[in-house]
Backbone:
């Protein structure tokens, strides 16, 4: 029951909303937790025990940390000033141990379920190569839905408790709500405890404004998914499934199409998810902010799958940069190599684990690891080349803010993104490399009008709709980027104008949506991660 | 007081919004249905039969045949007309599901009053479970009340000038490919039976009561198809028909009597029959229904001139096709 | 505070450190700026800035940075 299906939109969501509203305030939390576990059960059945287990485990780790902190405070209060730091150190050590246990256990479960077979396969190949008669048996492991998302949230919570950014609660219900809010289960956004737990726990009554804004957001999401993404799906699948038959422009077009498909689909489902949350009065963190106007890869990742980026930044990048290793290097580097090299070294040390994890997080595939490393190299190169670039700009008299320079940078970033997504989508690294190579063979614009593109299950009408849909999304993006409507969004407009927009959106989805005879329903891409 | 007024105003606005939405949905639905009725070439395969049957003159169809692809490959209304003057129509769809059967029947009854409804039993064997079923059911309900969901794709032919032409005679498709079925006897006697899905029987109950209300007889038929039928299914269907006192005609047990030759009459290795097979099945089927039900011979009646014309065309076409098929059999 | 200003100006003297209130949010100070800053602060004020302190609120203005240092010193 993915979020774009009618069963979710016209049955599950309204039912939960109704149950939530008529339930007395005390029971609302139970309704939401029940809806979350029910949702999980509908997709992963018995595996819901993984979510419940993770919740309870995380809850008790949190309580344990809080207890240690309290004990530490009590002991330091009642002892002489000289002994205080010793006691603090002792407790810090204990806390670290508890935190490490928590994180390691959660990661082990995730790693075992998600990566065991990948590991076994590669290990076996290695063992075979050195002819050791040992083999890891392949296992049939079923992944609970959304495990990659709720595990990150749980780890974030534990770290936040450890850092004293959030307070623990004696009742596990709040954490259960935080980890099991049904709109977020399948594909995020990965929120922090401080962002959503409070609103979920409060269980405010439904409000007309929230409901209508939530609805509009959901319809906008359907617009992106059903009008653009589900059409491009056909082209993308046709080319990527039979990549050996194509080269040149067709491959390039498929890479671009996949990027657009992924964006429309992922950000579209985010709209549905955030809209659903909004209906309950919960403001979920945004996951996209007009990624295609980014001027460089670093900015792109601050605008694309934002919550994943923020998570890595908060829980990997910052801890790394505050680590003893980096501090040592900083001192050592400054003495011996100067600022430039030092900065580059710090960047490498801190970025490497982030992008390794980013690649791994997407799944057990060499091509995902490659994808992570691809961005690692590009970002590092960007940092390394910055002084050179600035020098060049100065010499040529180009201002950083000049419009043509901006456009050029955006275009360059597009190329980086498209190539990245080509490898991301290809079935395996070797196929990705083959496709990348064939992109430069037989390049001729001829195929654009000789009907090649009409063989992918899309006709001229479909292409027209795709283009119009993308233009609409671009206009909406432009309005958002310049913040033309302010915080109130459409509410600022006069009723007739606003309603016309609503009706236009609704009927655009109904008429131009790719559903019914001749199309098939397309599963959510990110629900697979 | 002010607060209260505000609330009323807001509630009123919400109601107005949905009222307009509802009006737009119904308006556009009937508009799209009209457009589709005017030119059924705008509609793609699965939805065609529903549009075509709505185009028939009111109360002109006496026998309505429903079912999946087995229905429109096995029985030829034009052949029935030529032989008996019976007016029949096939409201079949590829892979028709039981709720679609129900809704086609319901839509048809809006301007037709058939005396007999024939249901090809393969739809009774097609059950779906869980969420998929819920999804299908919601979709079908939505499309029934707001046909805009069914016909929304007509923007494409209207805007781009494309059309989806398809030759059919009152729903029957002329199929002249021959791919023999070679696996031999498929109705091996057994006492076992399969279980019909409660989802299917629930809908069948609705279909039955709808027919009773309108004084329509129901006949279940299983057309010959080695791929889709076996004895276990036959047992279940026979029992179901008996329990609900419905007439049931199984032709898989009468393949010899029908003179079906799987070397020449199969379209795709025993899934469907081709034109040669359909002719034999229709011959038997026509005899069967005329002997059992009170059906009118409309040949020569005023208002049925269209049937005469179509029948002539059909005769010419089939004659050519049958000759070609027999030739290829002689050579091959 | 003067000591702090010296360090800040040493990192980038084109920023109006005294009046900027959104150093991180407006990306005047990037991640690497923060790292350099942290190590300088640690040396200068002999405090330990760990990952728990790495939140935008602590680095958005010179004042916030100063307050953080005071807080850590008291510990």
Residues:
């Amino acid at each position: 029951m993915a979020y774009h299906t009618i069963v979710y939109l016209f049955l599950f969501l309204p039912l939960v909303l109704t149950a939530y509203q008529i339930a007395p305030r005390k029971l609302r939390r139970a309704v939401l937790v029940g809806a979350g576990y029910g949702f999980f059960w509908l997709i992963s059945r018995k595996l819901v025990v993984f979510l419940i287990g993770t919740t309870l485990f995380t809850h008790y780790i949190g309580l344990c940390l809080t207890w240690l902190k309290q004990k530490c405070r009590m002991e330091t209060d009642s002892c002489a000033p000289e002994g205080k730091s010793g006691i603090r150190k002792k407790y810090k050590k204990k806390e670290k141990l508890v935190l490490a246990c928590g994180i390691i256990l959660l990661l082990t479960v995730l790693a075992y379920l998600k990566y065991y077979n990948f590991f076994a396969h590669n290990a076996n190949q290695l063992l075979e190569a050195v002819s050791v008669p040992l083999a890891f048996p392949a296992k049939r492991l079923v992944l609970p839905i959304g495990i990659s998302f709720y595990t990150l949230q749980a780890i974030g919570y534990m770290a936040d408790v450890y850092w004293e950014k959030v307070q623990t609660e004696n009742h596990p219900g709040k954490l259960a709500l935080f980890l099991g809010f049904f709109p977020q289960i399948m594909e995020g956004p990965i929120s922090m405890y401080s962002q959503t737990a409070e609103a979920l726990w409060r269980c405010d009554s439904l409000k007309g404004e929230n409901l209508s804004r939530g609805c509009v957001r959901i319809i906008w999401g359907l617009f992106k998914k059903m009008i653009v993404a589900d059409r491009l799906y056909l082209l993308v699948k046709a080319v990527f499934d039979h990549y050996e038959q194509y080269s040149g422009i067709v491959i390039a077009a498929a890479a671009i199409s996949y990027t657009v498909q992924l964006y429309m689909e992922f950000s579209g489902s985010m709209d549905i998810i955030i809209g659903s949350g909004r209906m309950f009065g919960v403001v979920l963190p945004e996951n996209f902010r007009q990624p295609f106007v980014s001027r460089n890869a670093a900015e792109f990742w601050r605008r694309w799958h934002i919550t994943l980026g923020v998570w890595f930044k908060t829980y990997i990048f910052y801890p790394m940069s505050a680590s003893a290793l980096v501090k040592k290097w900083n001192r050592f580097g400054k003495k011996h190599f100067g600022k430039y090299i030092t900065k580059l070294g710090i960047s490498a040390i801190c970025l490497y684990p982030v992008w390794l994890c980013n690649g791994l997080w997407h799944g057990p595939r060499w091509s995902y690891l490659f994808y992570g490393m691809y961005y690692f190299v590009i970002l590092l190169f960007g940092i390394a080349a910055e002084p050179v670039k600035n020098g060049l700009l100065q010499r040529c008299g180009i201002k950083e803010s000049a419009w043509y320079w901006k456009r050029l940078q955006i275009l360059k970033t597009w190329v980086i993104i498209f190539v990245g997504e080509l490898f991301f989508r290809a079935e395996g690294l070797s196929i990705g490399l083959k496709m990348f190579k064939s992109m430069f063979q037989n390049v001729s614009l001829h195929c654009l009008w000789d009907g090649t593109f009409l063989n992918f299950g899309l006709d001229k009408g479909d292409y027209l709709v795709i283009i119009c849909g993308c233009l609409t999304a671009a206009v909406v993006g432009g309005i958002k980027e310049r913040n033309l409507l302010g915080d109130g969004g459409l509410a600022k407009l006069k009723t007739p104008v606003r309603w016309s927009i609503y009706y236009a959106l609704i009927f655009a989805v109904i008429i131009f949506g790719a559903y019914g005879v001749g199309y098939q329903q397309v599963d959510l891409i990110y629900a697979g991660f | 007081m002010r607060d209260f007024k505000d609330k009323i105003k807001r509630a009123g606005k919400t109601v107005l919004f949905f009222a307009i939405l509802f009006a737009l949905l119904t308006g556009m639905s009937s508009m799209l249905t009209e457009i589709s009725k005017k030119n059924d070439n705008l509609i793609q395969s699965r939805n065609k039969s529903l549009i075509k049957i709505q185009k028939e003159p009111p109360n002109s169809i006496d026998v309505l045949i429903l079912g999946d692809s087995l229905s429109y490959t096995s029985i030829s209304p034009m052949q029935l007309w030529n032989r008996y003057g019976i007016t029949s129509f096939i409201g079949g769809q590829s892979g028709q599901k039981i709720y679609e059967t129900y809704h086609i029947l319901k839509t048809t009854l809006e301007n037709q009053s058939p005396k007999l409804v024939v249901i090809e039993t393969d739809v009774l064997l097609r059950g779906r479970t869980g969420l998929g079923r819920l999804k299908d059911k919601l979709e079908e309900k939505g499309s029934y009340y707001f046909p805009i969901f069914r016909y929304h794709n007509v923007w494409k032919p209207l805007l781009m000038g494309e059309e989806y032409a398809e030759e059919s005679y009152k729903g029957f498709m002329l199929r002249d490919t021959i791919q023999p079925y070679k696996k031999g006897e498929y109705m091996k006697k057994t006492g076992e039976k399969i279980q019909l899905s409660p989802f299917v029987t629930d809908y069948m109950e609705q279909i039955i009561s709808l027919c009773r209300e309108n004084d329509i007889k129901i006949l279940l038929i299983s057309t010959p198809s080695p791929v889709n039928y076996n004895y276990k299914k036959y047992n279940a269907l026979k029992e179901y028909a008996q329990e609900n006192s419905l007439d049931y005609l199984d032709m898989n047990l009468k393949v010899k009597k029908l003179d079906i030759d799987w070397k020449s009459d199969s379209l795709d290795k025993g899934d469907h029959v081709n034109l040669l097979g359909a002719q034999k099945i229709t011959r038997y089927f026509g005899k069967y229904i005329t002997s059992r039900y009170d059906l009118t011979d409309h040949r020569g009646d005023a208002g049925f001139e269209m049937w005469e014309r179509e029948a002539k065309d059909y005769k010419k076409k089939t004659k050519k096709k049958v000759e070609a098929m027999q030739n290829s059999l002689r050579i091959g | 505070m003067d000591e702090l200003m010296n360090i800040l100006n040493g990192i980038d003297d084109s920023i109006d450190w005294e009046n900027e209130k959104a150093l991180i949010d407006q990306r005047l100070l990037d991640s690497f700026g923060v790292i350099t800053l942290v190590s300088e602060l640690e040396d200068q004020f002999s405090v330990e800035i760990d990952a728990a302190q790495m939140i935008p609120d602590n680095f958005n203005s010179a004042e916030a940075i100063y307050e953080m240092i005071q807080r850590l010193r008291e510990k």
